[in-house]
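Before drawing any conclusions, I needed to go through one protein's amino acid sequence and its backbone structure tokens, quoted below without any editing.
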Amino acid sequence: MTLTKLDLTGLKCPLPALKTRKALARLSVGDYLEVTCTDPLAAIDIPVLIQQTGDRLEATEKGDKGIVFLIRKSGTPTTLETSN
């Protein structure tokens, strides 16, 4: 297992979520991604993204320097079903 750090400070919506999705795609199951954001909308966007990808949000920490998310790659993506 590895820990990858992704510094997205200064980026505005939707870039933090898009870059987080791209970084998660490169990880192996069980790896961790630590994402640091300053955009307040990331507090909504990143958890929604994690719900969609099926990965696991291990921790969220809000501080003076922004929001830090610790995400574990699970390898079980959630699919949205559509009716035909």
In short: The mean pLDDT is 90. The chain is about 25% helix and 30% strand.
